[in-house]
């Protein structure tokens, strides 16, 4: 008697994809060729538009164990800058590049844990001036478009035809800018804590709005600046973060960094807050972040990233957003989703900004798992 192969349903927004034989023993990798994109290179048994369909498959939502890189190095990307990069996971796996936040925050070992190391070739790198990249905290030749081209230089250096892109907070900004500039190199997007560097987003966090929720943390940030300069805190801090006096820079950097660290999670994390006490970390984080915000992200218009969504509309994407994100409030994720309804929006009801909050981390892992299973069943 013929048996019916088991079927698995994975939902993306209002679209359902049904697969056969999704047991571990039947999974096999179907590497993408140059033109094959995520969701474009698999055969589904059944695909239909429906509403409110949940995946019947239980995706892993737990962070993967800590791993070490199998290779790392430095890539000279300009006469001034050299960036640190590393690879971990499966050397011949599906490549995914992790774009860190800030800008200026750098990467950390925990960033590798969002990805299955037995499937993904995980690429992390520190953006210009951040982490292990040199020169440290350097603002010269450090713009959004420099970073976009650095990503391309790194992709070519590692001989990767195309890759999945994963970015949160400022990393979501950079992921959008990169994918809109090089859509043919992106197989899928996972974005978290959406930030598009619009005036209303910067005003919310640095001029009022967030201060109503964290008045205790705000007082420290506010009181460092004389009253006569408080009409624009980004400008006032820029003056101090670019001072010729390194002592002034460090003092301003610590306070700038602490303000963000104190507001980054729904329930404040003391370990996160103490990062603001580290001179080296806070100097890069604050100087580079403020430099980008002072220059409006080096974007030509306030709505640049929204205006260019059509360039990436065909790329499948998942947006993960904490409902109570104070740093990058949900209005931005909502605006992006309205402009790009094809992207799946996952709202975490008990989370703030950080990728490390339990619910957010779980959805980020699950998003990678969805992409993994779709890639594995490219010829199902």
UniProtKB/TrEMBL annotation:
Record InterPro entries: AB_hydrolase_1, AB_hydrolase_fold, Peptidase_S33, Pro_iminopeptidase
GO process terms (BP): proteolysis
Keyword Protein transport: no
Keyword annotations from UniProtKB, A to Z: Aminopeptidase, Cytoplasm, Hydrolase, Protease
Enzymatic reactions: Release of N-terminal proline from a peptide
Protein's cellular compartments: Cytoplasm
Keyword set includes Hydrolase: yes
Record-level GO cellular component terms: cytoplasm
Domain AB hydrolase-1 span(s) in chain numbering: 95-359
Gene Ontology molecular-function annotations: aminopeptidase activity
Gene3D superfamilies: alpha/beta hydrolase (3.40.50.1820)
Broad enzyme group: hydrolase
A Pfam family reported for this protein in Swiss-Prot or TrEMBL: Abhydrolase_1
EC number: 3.4.11.5
Membrane-spanning intervals of the chain: none
Signal sequence extent: none
Family (UniProt): Belongs to the peptidase S33 family.
Xref: NCBIfam families: pro_imino_pep_1
Descriptive protein name: Proline iminopeptidase
Native source organism of the sequence: Rhynchospora pubera
Lineage: Eukaryota, Viridiplantae, Streptophyta, Embryophyta, Tracheophyta
């Amino acid at each position: 008697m013929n048996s019916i192969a088991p079927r698995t349903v994975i939902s993306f927004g209002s679209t359902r994809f049904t697969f056969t034989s999704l047991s571990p023993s039947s999974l096999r990798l179907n590497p993408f060729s140059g033109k094959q994109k995520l969701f474009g290179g698999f055969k589904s048994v059944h695909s239909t538009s429906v509403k409110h369909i949940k995946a019947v498959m239980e995706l892993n939502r737990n962070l993967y164990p800590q791993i070490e890189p199998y290779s790392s190095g430095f890539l000279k990307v300009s006469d001034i800058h050299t960036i640190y990069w590393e690879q971990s996971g499966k050397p011949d796996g599906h490549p995914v590049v992790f774009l860190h936040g800030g800008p200026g925050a750098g990467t950390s070992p925990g960033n590798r844990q969002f990805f299955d190391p037995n499937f993904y070739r995980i690429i992390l790198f520190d953006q210009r001036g951040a982490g292990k990249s040199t020169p440290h905290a350097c603002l010269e030749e450090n713009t959004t478009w420099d970073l976009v081209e650095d990503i391309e230089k790194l992709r070519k250096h590692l001989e990767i035809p195309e890759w999945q892109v994963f970015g949160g907070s400022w990393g979501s900004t950079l992921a959008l800018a990169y994918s809109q500039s090089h859509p043919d190199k992106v197989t899928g997007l996972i974005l978290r804590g959406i930030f598009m560097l619009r005036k209303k987003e910067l005003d919310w966090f640095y001029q009022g709005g967030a201060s109503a929720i964290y008045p205790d943390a705000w007082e420290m940030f506010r009181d460092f600046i004389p009253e006569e300069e408080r009409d624009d805190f980004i400008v006032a801090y820029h003056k101090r973060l670019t001072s010729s006096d390194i002592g002034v820079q460090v003092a301003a950097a610590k306070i700038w960094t602490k303000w963000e660290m104190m507001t980054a999670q729904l329930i404040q994390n003391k370990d996160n807050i103490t990062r603001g006490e580290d001179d080296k970390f806070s100097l890069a984080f604050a100087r580079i972040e403020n430099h980008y915000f002072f220059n409006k992200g080096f974007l030509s218009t306030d709505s640049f990233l929204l205006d260019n969504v059509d360039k990436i509309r065909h790329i499948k994407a998942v947006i993960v957003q904490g409902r109570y994100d104070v740093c990058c409030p949900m209005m931005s994720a909502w605006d992006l989703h309205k402009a790009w309804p094809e992207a799946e929006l996952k709202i975490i009801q008990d989370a703030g900004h950080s990728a490390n909050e339990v619910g957010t981390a779980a959805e980020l892992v699950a998003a990678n798992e969805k992409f993994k299973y779709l890639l594995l069943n490219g010829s199902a």
